[in-house]
Every structure is written in C-alpha cells, then in structure tokens.
Sequence to fold (249 residues):
Amino acid sequence: MGNPLLRGPGADPTIIAHRGASADAPENTMPAFELAFRFTSWLETDVQPTADGVPVLLHDADLDRTTDGMGPVRELAYADLQALDAGSWFSPHFARTPVPTLRGLLDALPHDGHVLLEIKGPHTDAQLGAVLEVVERSGVDERVLLQSFEREALARLHALRPERPLGLLTGAWDDDPVAECRRYGAVLYNPDHRLLEGRDLQRLHAHGIASAPYTADAPADWSRLHALGADAIITDRPGALEDWLAERP
Ligand code: G3P
Ligand code: CA
Fold:
C-alpha cells in the first residue's frame, strides 16, 4: 500500500467515519460500521486485546460506558465479552449488539471498504502480533492502515514490518512532524483537528505524508480543514459531511 489518503488536486478530503457512523449508531459496532459504508469507503475504529488475546473493537479501556459489562476489557476473556450488549446504552433499537472482533469486521468488509485501525493503548509484541496476524490473514490487508498515539507501539510495529505504512496520531504538534513520521514509517500525520489551524501541510505532502485530523463534526470545522488542505476528515457524522461536501459551491 502506498498512501491512499493523499488528496489529489481539486479533490475533496476523504471522509473517515469515526468509530463508524457513531453519531447515529453505537460506536465501534457492526451497525455503526454498516451505516458508515453507506456514506464513505473509510472508517476508523479502535482495537484492544481481551484477556486471552483476541483483538476486539472498543474505544475505552473499560467496558462500563459502551456495554453492560464492567471493568477493563483486557481483564475479560473473549467468551465472556461475547455475551455483552454494546448497543443498549445508545438506544434500545440496538439491544444485544455485541462488541465486534477485528476479524469479524474484516470478514465483512465491503469490496471497497478501508479501515483506519487505531492500536488503542499499550500493546506487547504478542498483542501487536495478534493484530498483524488477523490483518495479514484477512485477504484485505492492503485496505487496513494501522495508526496509534502510542509511539512505542508504532516503533515496534515498524521494526516488525518495516514496509508497512503507518499513521501517527498526536494531541500536540511535533517540532518536526516529517522527522517523527519517518521514525515510524508513517504516511499519515493525524493531529487533533484544532492543531491544524495556521499549519502548512505542504512540507508533509512534499514527503508523501497525508494528514487526517480528528474529530470534526461541525460545518465550520469542515470548512476550515477543507481550506487548509486536510487530506481526510475523521468525523462522527459521515452522512452529514458527505451532504456538506456535495452542497459546497
Ligand atoms: O482516529 C483518531 C481518533 O479516533 C483519536 O481519538 O479518542 O477517538 O480514539 P479517539
Ligand atoms: Ca480512535
């Protein structure tokens, strides 16, 4: 995979559905992913290991907010996690929706579906290996781009798979984003969208690095990011962003 997110001349930013279409369906569940793919071919999701090492899709370290379980996901075996309801907290309409596995998502990926997969939290080499194993055996490996805030995890992934393009997530703009990306073989530099204000993305672009800022849900922010040259926009509202892009003069 080269860099599928670099924005071509005259093109709009790619829409990346954050945790699926998470404004309209429970985040990081199959219904949210299915809804997202009605509006865009890219979604973002978060992967973490269960106690027995199964890569599952959940944002928080704990199960409390988005399931009817409690405590750290990393302390629960997959067999027990499977029984949890990850939909009712959002709406009774989604009752009994399970926490998906990474494998389940990739098995169901539409033919043009792409996944920006965030390695969430610290991972051991074995846990990173389990993610790589699922991705590389999925048949859709070239449509999965791994990213993380965890620079240690990115360094180890880069050592394990030097040819694999990665994404660097950051909550603070680096002194030299190009150098930081090169350190990890990153082709994506993804800051909090507010950090993009006044930044010049040309140097990143000149080095083949795209920027997909997170998480922008308001038209005023979409407008600013579009004008700044963001290559993609990570949003909870992919349908609304698709409409907004279509209606731009
Ligand atoms: O992909 C960027 C975004 O998901 C990072 O923040 O907390 O939503 O995982 P968070
Ligand atoms: Ca995320």
In short: The first strand starts at residue 14 and ends at 18. Residues 18, 44, 46, 59, 118, 169, 190, 214-215, 234 surround SN-glycerol-3-phosphate (ligand 1) (CB under 6 Å).
